[in-house]
C-alpha cells in the first residue's frame, strides 16, 4: 500500500511526448540567462556558449556599475525630488541585479527542481487508463505551453519597450528644447538616470559613451527581472496544468466506467486512487522545492513593488501642471512605469492564487471519483480480500483529501504570501506611503 513513485517504471513510451516539448521556452530561458560551463566537445556550441556568457557578464557588470554610480550620486541630490528619482533608479537596478545573480548562482538547484517536474510528467499516464485521458493531458499541457510562450514574449517585449522609451526621453526633450531655442550649443546634456559620471559629458563623445553605458546597464536590469519572473510564471503554468489533469482524472466518468468494466486485481479503483495519491504527492513535492527556491527573490520583488509604486506616485504628483513637452513625456513615462510594475506583480500573485484554487479542488474531485462503487462491490463479497481493499481505498481517500485541503501557499520571504490579496495590500501600502512622502515634501518646501 506504499505510495512511492519510485515503485513504478518511470519511462516514456514510444507514443508519449516528453516534458521538454511543453517547457521548451523555460529551458531556452534557463540556457540564455545563466552562466553555463563551456562544452569543449562541439566547436559550434562552444563558441555559442562563450558568446552567451560574454553577453551575460557584460550586462551584469554594466548593471552593477550603473547601480554604483547612482549610489555615489545620491550625495549630490539638491532636493527631495531629485533624491526620490535617484532612489527609484537605484532600487530598480538593485532588484534586477540581485534576482539575476540569485538565478545564476542557484542554477543547479533550479535544474534539480526541473527534474522533479519531469517525474510528475512521467507519472501522469498512470492516473488515467483511457486514451482520451492522456489526450486530455496533452491538450492541457499544450495550452500551458502556448500560454507560457505568449506570456514570455509579451512580458519581455513590454518591459524592453518601457526601458527603451525611458532611455529615449532625454533625447526627445533635448531635441524639443534645441528646436525651441534654435541654439544647439546651449542645451543641457541629460542622461536617463542620475548617476556619477567620471568624465565630461558636455561633449558629444563623452555623452554618447555615458548614454550607451546606462543603456546596457538598464537592459541588464530588465533582463534580470524578466528572466526570473518568466521562469516563475511559466513553471506555475505547467504545475497548474498537472493539477487540472489530476482533477480531471479523478472525476472522469469515462475512466471510472472503464475501470468498473474491466475490474481485476490489477485494474480497479483502488489502484487508480493509489496512483492519484502518488501523482498528487509528486506535484506537491515539486511545488514545495519550487517555493523554497523562489521565496527570497519574490520577497525582494514584493519590497521593490511597494517602493517603486510609492516613488512613481510621488513623482507623478509633483509634476508641474503645464502642457510643455517635457512634462507630458515625463508623465507618460511614469504612467507606463506604474502600469508595468502593477502588471508584473499582478502576474506573479495571480498565478500563485490560481494554483492554490486548483489545488483545493483536488479534494472535491477525489470525492466525486465514485469511490463508493468499490466499497459496495467489495462489501458484497465480504471476503478478507474485499475488506483489505476497502481499507486501502479509505486510506487513499483520506490521504488525498487531507493533503489537498491544505492550501498550496507560495511564500515570499517571512512576511508575504503571494496572492491577489497580497497584491491589493502592496498597492494600497504604496499609495499610502506616497501620500505621506508628498506631505513631507510639502512641509519642507
From TrEMBL:
Matching entries from Pfam families are given as: 7tm_6
Query: One GO biological process from the UniProt record?
Result: signal transduction
Keyword flag Membrane: yes
Q: Which InterPro entries match?
A: 7tm6_olfct_rcpt
Parts of the chain that traverse the membrane: 50-72, 150-168, 294-314, 334-356, 415-436
Membrane topology of the entry: Multi-pass membrane protein
Which residues fall in a coiled-coil region?
none
Q: Which UniProt keywords apply?
A: Membrane, Olfaction, Receptor, Sensory transduction, Transducer, Transmembrane, Transmembrane helix
UniProt entry tagged with the keyword Amino-acid biosynthesis: no
**Compartments reported by the entry:** Cell membrane; Membrane
Show the GO MF annotations.
odorant binding; olfactory receptor activity
Q: Which GO terms describe its cellular component?
A: plasma membrane
Which family, according to UniProt? Belongs to the insect chemoreceptor superfamily. Heteromeric odorant receptor channel (TC 1.A.69) family.
Q: What is this protein called?
A: Odorant receptor
Amino acid at each position: 500500500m506504499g505510495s512511492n513513485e519510485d515503485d513504478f517504471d518511470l519511462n516514456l513510451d514510444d507514443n508519449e511526448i516528453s516534458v521538454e516539448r511543453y517547457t521548451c521556452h523555460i529551458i531556452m530561458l534557463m540556457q540564455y540567462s545563466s552562466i553555463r560551463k563551456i562544452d569543449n566537445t562541439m566547436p559550434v556550441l562552444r563558441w555559442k556558449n562563450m558568446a552567451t556568457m560574454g553577453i551575460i557578464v557584460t550586462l551584469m557588470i554594466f548593471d552593477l556599475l550603473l547601480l554604483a554610480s547612482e549610489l555615489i550620486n545620491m550625495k549630490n541630490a539638491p532636493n527631495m525630488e531629485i533624491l526620490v528619482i535617484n532612489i527609484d533608479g537605484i532600487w530598480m537596478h538593485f532588484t534586477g541585479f540581485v534576482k539575476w545573480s540569485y538565478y545564476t548562482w542557484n542554477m543547479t538547484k533550479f535544474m534539480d527542481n526541473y527534474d522533479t517536474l519531469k517525474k510528475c510528467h512521467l507519472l501522469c499516464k498512470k492516473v488515467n487508463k483511457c486514451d482520451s485521458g492522456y489526450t486530455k493531458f496533452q491538450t492541457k499541457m499544450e495550452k500551458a505551453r502556448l500560454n507560457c510562450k505568449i506570456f514570455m514574449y509579451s512580458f519581455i517585449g513590454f518591459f524592453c519597450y518601457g526601458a527603451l522609451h525611458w532611455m529615449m526621453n532625454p533625447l526627445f526633450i533635448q531635441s524639443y528644447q534645441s528646436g525651441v531655442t534654435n541654439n544647439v550649443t546651449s542645451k543641457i546634456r541629460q542622461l536617463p538616470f542620475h548617476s556619477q559620471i567620471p568624465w565630461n559629458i558636455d561633449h558629444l563623445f563623452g555623452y554618447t559613451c555615458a548614454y550607451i553605458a546606462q543603456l546596457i546597464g538598464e537592459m541588464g536590469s530588465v533582463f534580470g527581472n524578466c528572466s526570473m519572473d518568466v521562469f516563475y510564471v511559466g513553471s506555475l503554468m505547467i504545475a497548474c496544468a498537472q493539477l487540472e489533469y489530476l482533477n480531471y482524472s479523478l472525476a472522469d466518468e469515462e475512466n471510472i466506467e472503464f475501470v468498473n468494466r474491466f475490474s481485476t486485481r490489477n485494474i480497479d479503483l483502488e489502484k487508480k486512487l493509489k496512483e492519484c495519491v502518488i501523482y498528487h504527492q509528486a506535484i506537491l513535492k515539486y511545488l514545495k522545492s519550487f517555493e523554497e527556491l523562489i521565496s527570497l527573490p519574490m520577497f525582494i520583488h514584493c519590497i521593490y513593488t511597494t517602493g517603486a509604486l510609492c516613488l512613481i506616485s510621488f513623482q507623478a504628483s509633483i509634476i508641474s501642471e503645464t502642457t510643455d513637452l517635457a512634462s507630458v513625456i515625463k508623465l507618460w513615462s511614469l504612467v507606463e512605469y506604474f502600469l508595468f510594475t502593477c502588471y508584473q506583480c499582478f502576474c506573479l500573485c495571480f498565478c500563485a492564487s490560481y494554483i492554490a484554487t486548483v489545488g483545493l479542488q483536488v479534494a472535491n474531485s477525489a470525492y466525486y471519483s465514485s469511490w463508493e462503487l468499490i466499497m459496495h462491490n467489495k462489501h458484497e463479497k465480504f471476503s478478507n480480500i474485499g475488506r483489505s481493499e476497502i481499507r486501502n481505498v479509505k486510506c487513499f481517500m483520506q490521504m488525498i483529501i487531507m493533503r489537498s485541503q491544505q492550501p498550496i501557499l507560495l511564500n515570499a520571504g517571512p512576511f508575504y504570501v503571494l496572492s491577489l490579496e497580497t497584491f491589493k495590500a502592496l498597492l494600497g501600502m504604496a499609495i499610502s506611503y506616497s501620500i505621506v512622502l508628498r506631505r513631507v515634501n510639502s512641509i519642507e518646501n
